[in-house]
Amino acid sequence: MTEQSSAEAQEQQALNERHRVRMERKKAIIDAKIAAADKEIGIVIVNTGNGKGKSSSGLGMVVRAMGHGMRVGVVQFIKGAMETGEEKFLRRFPEEVAFHAMGEGYTWNTQDRERDIEKARLAWDQARRFLSDPAIGLVLLDELNIALKYRYLDLDMVIQDLLARPPMQHVVVTGRGAPQELIDVADTVTDMAVVKHAFKAGIGAQAGTEW
User: Total structural domains in the chain?
Assistant: First the structure.
């Protein structure tokens, strides 16, 4: 071994040891936090922001919950005019997930506020049935934030129903423009930001990535 290669080996060994010490300290901190987080209770998760992936994340949690043997309820606000890949897939498991796409399309397509309000209220009736059923382990309220943003639903009523749900039931709410009142009562909130999107380069929505 040359003098240079020996020095490089010693430097690498020192780097590895510093990494081990840092990770050992980090593990101790994380283990202590995990030990302190000893509560088990249903949580409210809000995915909002202008970035892609809010519904995809919510539907991913649906599949995760199903994998743990939970029964799941899905209510899609706004969406419903077009059947998505997720809907086609989840309808294969009717005993595990109840899927309700109850909108009639994006608001710029429907152009009928009274009709949109009617559909949102019917969707909330279904959501309320899920939120009152302790056998449902997770409820996804997809694009609910849009219905709240356009005041299709009463925000105080929605929050009251969320807070009155069974104690071990999880709820995931998606959509842009989550109201601050909902953010305040949520346990976990993610604001998804846009870095880059194919649509701005003239690439249309495609099966498997957007729907």
Answer: 2
Label residue 46 exposed, middle or buried (CB < 10 Å: 0-12, 13-18, 19+): buried
Strand order of the β-sheet with 136-142 is: 97-101, 71-76, 136-142, 170-174, 44-48, 188-191
Residues 6 or more apart in contact with residue 24 via CB below 8 angstroms: none
- In angstroms, the first-to-last Cα distance of the chain is 58
For position 114, which CATH number holds?
A: 3.40.50.300
The answer to whether residues 89 and 170 belong to one domain is yes
Predicted confidence at residue 108, as pLDDT, reads: 56
Closest CA to 173 of 43, 41, 42, 44: 44
Determine phi and psi for 43, rounding to 5 degrees. Answer: -120, 160
DSSP, collapsed to helix, strand or coil, labels residue 155 as helix
Residue range(s) defining the domain that contains residue 11: 1-38
Return the exposure string of 192-206: e unless at least 16 CB atoms fall within 10 Å of the residue's CB, then b.
beeeeeeeeeeeeee
Are residues 52 and 23 part of one domain? no
Q: Please state which of the ranges 11-20, 60-69, 131-140, 147-156 shows the lowest mean pLDDT.
A: 11-20
